[in-house]
User: Fold this.
Amino acid sequence: MIISPALRRVRQLSTAAAAAAAAAAASTGSSSITISKAKAKLRSEFDPDKALEIYSSVSDHYTSPRSNRYTQDLTIRRLAKSRRFGDIETLLESHKNDPRITQEPFVSTLIRSYDLAGMFVHALRTYNQMDDLGAPRSTTSFNALLAACTQSKLFDQVPQLFDQMPKRHGFSPDEVSYGMLVKSYCQNHVYEVLK
Assistant:
């Protein structure tokens, strides 16, 4: 494949511009790093304090729950492995002051993070606080709650939540919800209900 001299020059200029921007950011003392660099660092970082430091350097700069979710998951897992549940609670409760708390995907991410740490009581409390936080409820947050319940091996509570929450909050469970219900019955060895 032959690359034209003009294309080669454009590539050189874009690479040089990117390097200059990175050098400028480094020289101004910016402590922010990209999501991809944070992920790479968090995968290899075993010190929970350093993991928190890496997470805090990216969490304030990215507004999308999706872009930030993976770094948050890695940080929560690192803290959970170190059994630092107080730090997990402090970190996740601090997110309840974020203006994005009124968006259901953001709250679902918090519920899911409590799920990763095996802190179902906190996940349920966050789900129950959604009205106070001004966040709507749908199957998105409900499925996050069911996942937290199954992750914590509280399979007997899934049918209770399945019966109560959709009626109380006015939504219909979806296929994912029913899949978690079936899984909870199977894990509890309650096969008669499935027939």
Summary: Residues 14-30 have pLDDT under 50 and may be disordered. The chain is about 70% helix and 0% strand. Residues 131 and 137 are 8 Å apart (CA to CA). The longest helix spans residues 5-27.
